[in-house]
Give the backbone structure.
Amino acid sequence: MKDNAKGKKKGLSLSLRQNIVGYSFILPNFIGFLVFTFIPVLFSLFLSFSHWDGFTEIEFAGLDNFISIFKDRVFTSAIWKTAYFSFFTVVLSMAASLGLALLLNQKIKARGFFRCALFFPYVASVVAISVVWNAMLQPDYGPLNELLKFIGISDPPGWLASTSWVIPGLIIVNVWRNMGYFMIIYLAGLQSIDQSLYEAAEIDGAKGWTLFRKITWPLLSPSTFFVVMMLIINSFKVFDLVWLMTQGGPGTASTMLSQYIYNQAFISWDYGKTSAAAMILFVIVGALTLFQFRIEKKVVNY
């Protein structure tokens, strides 16, 4: 009996030591999250109901900041522009990455090279990407418009210099930048599919589109869920690419929510409106993410 009691004590002591070691590994990350994410988010929530310019005393404002920004034409326009940018970025990036994954999953020559080449834009400097694409989309002598003129389009788009074409131009650049990374995600999903499923379906006479619709697409739903979720989050909070290429211009034609938040914080020095806009962005992205989780759950259960 005494031996058993000693064994239990030693077992509990070992378990406690193991827990301490485990918690010690996650503690730095937890402290970093607490200090640099959780506390600032709480402070931002508090500021959204306050007036503060960073220098004077904080004054309680109630819902004034939220009422003020919804009366601001630039803010309401930024919501629609962000939604427009995000929708086409998600759809086109998903289609391009899936198409490339299906192509490069085949046994073709130099497919390793093409995979690396397509993935490279995702890890390349955003500054370098912006400089190159600004030159390519230059309306007067840019290579893209020169190509369009060559094939017979006499009046090509003004791209980043046009209020009508600036967001489509940004979408093209963002899709080009993202598709290589999400292609890798889809490639991983494709390679995890059991090939015997295709063989059995082909014996039953299924080919091409039927194989994709009945086998490939349903089994890629986890990959698609991840791709869509990441694309939505990234496109709604896009800042660096837009700032480097257009700075929200011409005028406010490409001012997204993140750009609006930046302008309120570091140009207008109105941290109350900044925090209110940030909270609205947080709610929009959170609602879309929860909606996507619910859709994914229904699909899996089905």
Observations:
- Residues 2-47 form the longest helix (46 residues).
